[in-house]
């Protein structure tokens, strides 16, 4: 780790079957991150399952069920090094029922690659994923126009899709002039890792080069420490080890910390005894670090997934109610006051009641279209008031954006996504 490369989380999104997993697999294979032998085995396995041509996808889709269905179910994380960055690649599912993982993925991502197939163009989920990326704060995008081989590597096809996607990006507030559009054919391997001779009209970057053109994420080290707990383990000889990812701020060994709501909402305090990442002891952890740590004075039953750690002099905010800006993505009917779905905020999952719908907004511009509407439905953006059923840590978008975003889920589907813009502190 002498040359510490900049770490970046990169999420691959896009409509199902547009080639996200194949693109990632191709990138990893051509760069030598996967050897010939593994690739050959995957190829045989693919043919055996009647999925010839899916071998690159199998690199990421390593769950047995995924291989049989040829779809991505869970988020696969893979390390990938370029000249400039050390990427964690998150291959997010395009399938409807797996969109909750897409949300977990996007809310951790510094940048996204939107894969759009040249033979299909913009599809329903392409739109949904673009909107989600925007609402969840993925601020840099690369658009990979894939399957160019199925369109004879035609420049006009690429330009048409670039135009359609640019229109879509504008509606949700991305600036298309800041987005890199790259023509690729992931299965044959054109313009992903290697330059191609099939598109003489293209003098722009390969996908790999486009990834290195991204701006390094700003590490929010100057914001207050916030570390949502993902899991809590008991490890012999060490004791209780909570695990999570530092969202903002810096945590050092010796720090006085508090974990809230924890222990019936009273919080629990202690001193950081040790921190480790990838089985190595560290004296401090920064944003983006996935760590395990041990706090003197914290017992196994004191903390749980969804609690948040901060410094005792800047305690994470526990809200008794909050105001949010949301986008309705996929609700079977309409959303009205009184609706009580589950909010997924950082690692917490808490049922919350919608107590008011204050405004309906134009999703493209954010301006108010209606005051106090009776209901909101798919495609609507709105400002709502929300009351959590149990104590919940959330922060305002303008204070700590990383802790303000959430997804709303109900009976297995993601119905909406949004961010907290105001709150009432729990007394």
Could you characterize the architecture of this molecule?
- 19% of the residues lie in helices and 35% in strands.
- By secondary structure, it is α+β, with helices and mostly antiparallel strands.
- It folds into 3 domains: 6-212, 3-Layer(aba) Sandwich (Rossmann fold); 227-311, Beta Barrel (Elongation Factor Tu (Ef-tu), domain 3), CATH 2.40.30; 318-425, Translation factors (Elongation Factor Tu (Ef-tu), domain 3, Beta Barrel), CATH 2.40.30.
- The chain has a 6-stranded mixed sheet with strand order 2-3-1-4-5-6, sandwiched between helices. A 6-stranded antiparallel barrel has the order 7-8-14-11-10-15. It has a 6-stranded antiparallel beta barrel with strand order 16-20-18-17-22-23.
- The N and C termini lie far apart (46 Å).
Furnish the topology, listing elements before pairings.
Layout: E1 6-13, H1 20-30, H2 36-48, H3 55-60, H4 64-69, E2 76-81, E3 85-91, H5 99-106, E4 111-117, H6 124-135, E5 140-146, H7 155-172, E6 180-183, H8 207-212, E7 227-235, E8 239-245, E9 251-252, E10 256-260, E11 268-277, E12 280-282, E13 284-285, E14 290-296, E15 308-311, E16 318-328, E17 342-345, E18 348-361, E19 368-371, E20 381-388, E21 392-393, E22 405-410, E23 413-425
Parallel strand pairs: 1-3, 1-4, 4-5, 5-6
Antiparallel strand pairs: 2-3, 7-8, 7-15, 8-14, 9-13, 10-11, 10-15, 11-12, 11-14, 16-20, 16-21, 16-23, 17-18, 17-22, 18-19, 18-20, 22-23
